[in-house]
């Protein structure tokens, strides 16, 4: 929210008073003096009036998990373990998943409480590639790459998928890079050729690669550099 609105939403300031505090350069956000009324204040921002803390700012949290098979990408499930069950974090109920994976899909899963950050990763408009290693039941044909690059029509959503890049690694293995993350997208793309996906592993989301030191089920906090890469 804009800093002028943040201030005038507090019971003690009206809009005029909020503007004046900014002009007088008495407001700081994360230690930086702010006079621009459009400056963005987030739930993670520390906002002060002179030395007085108006909002302490809650800590932003970012984790990378190696999702194992047999767990659900959801915050709760009546039957199966969820990816959040794998986290030993006291505030895990405030976290959400940036880009779900199917029950038996393995690989990179990013978990955070920062909605703006996760939207940048997952929204098709930012065009960040999601890279999967795919294993199929039948041989991957020579026509797959061009078909995926041209886009496939998904009747349910009434859309054509954005150009995807396929690198064939072996008769039944490939690396597929897609921009959006539609429901069961990879399986449906191979399903167009009646070729069943029997193994699916997400290696990368945008600039972030699954840490090879993480065994399935393990996780770690992202580094500051990794957070800022997105
Ligand atoms: N596409 C799928 O079909 N499944 C996943 O888990 C991820 C992408």
From TrEMBL:
Pfam families: PseudoU_synth_2 (PF00849), S4 (PF01479)
Catalytic activity: uridine(516) in 16S rRNA = pseudouridine(516) in 16S rRNA
Record SMART domains: S4
The organism's place on the tree of life at top rank: Bacteria
Domain RNA-binding S4: 1-58
Broad EC category: isomerase
PROSITE patterns, sorted: PSI_RSU, S4
EC numbers: 5.4.99.-
Keywords, ordered alphabetically: Isomerase, RNA-binding
Function text: Responsible for synthesis of pseudouridine from uracil-516 in 16S ribosomal RNA.
Stated family: Belongs to the pseudouridine synthase RsuA family.
NCBIfam families to which the protein is assigned, alphabetical: pseudouridine synthase (TIGR00093)
The protein's name: Pseudouridine synthase
């Amino acid at each position: 929210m804009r800093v002028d609105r943040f201030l005038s939403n507090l019971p003690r300031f009206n809009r005029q008073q909020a503007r004046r505090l900014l002009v007088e350069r008495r407001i700081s956000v994360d230690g930086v003096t702010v006079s621009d009324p459009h400056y963005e204040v987030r739930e993670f921002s520390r906002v002060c009036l002179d030395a007085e803390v108006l909002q302490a700012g809650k800590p932003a949290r970012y984790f990378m998990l190696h999702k194992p098979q047999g767990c659900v990408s959801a915050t709760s499930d009546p039957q199966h373990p969820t990816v959040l069950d794998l986290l030993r974090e006291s505030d895990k109920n405030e976290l959400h998943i940036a880009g779900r994976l199917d029950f038996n899909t393995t690989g990179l899963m990013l978990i955070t409480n920062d909605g703006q950050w996760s939207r940048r990763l997952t929204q098709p408009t930012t065009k960040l590639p999601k890279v999967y290693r795919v294993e199929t039941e039948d041989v991957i044909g020579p026509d797959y790459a061009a078909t995926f690059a041209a886009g496939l029509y998904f009747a349910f959503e009434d859309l054509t998928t954005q150009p995807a890049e396929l690198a064939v690694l072996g008769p039944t293995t490939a690396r597929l890079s897609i921009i959006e993350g539609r429901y069961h997208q990879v399986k449906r793309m191979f399903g167009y050729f009646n070729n069943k996906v029997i193994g699916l592993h997400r290696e990368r989301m945008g600039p972030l690669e699954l840490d090879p030191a993480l065994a399935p089920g393990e996780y770690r906090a992202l580094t500051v550099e990794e957070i800022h890469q997105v």
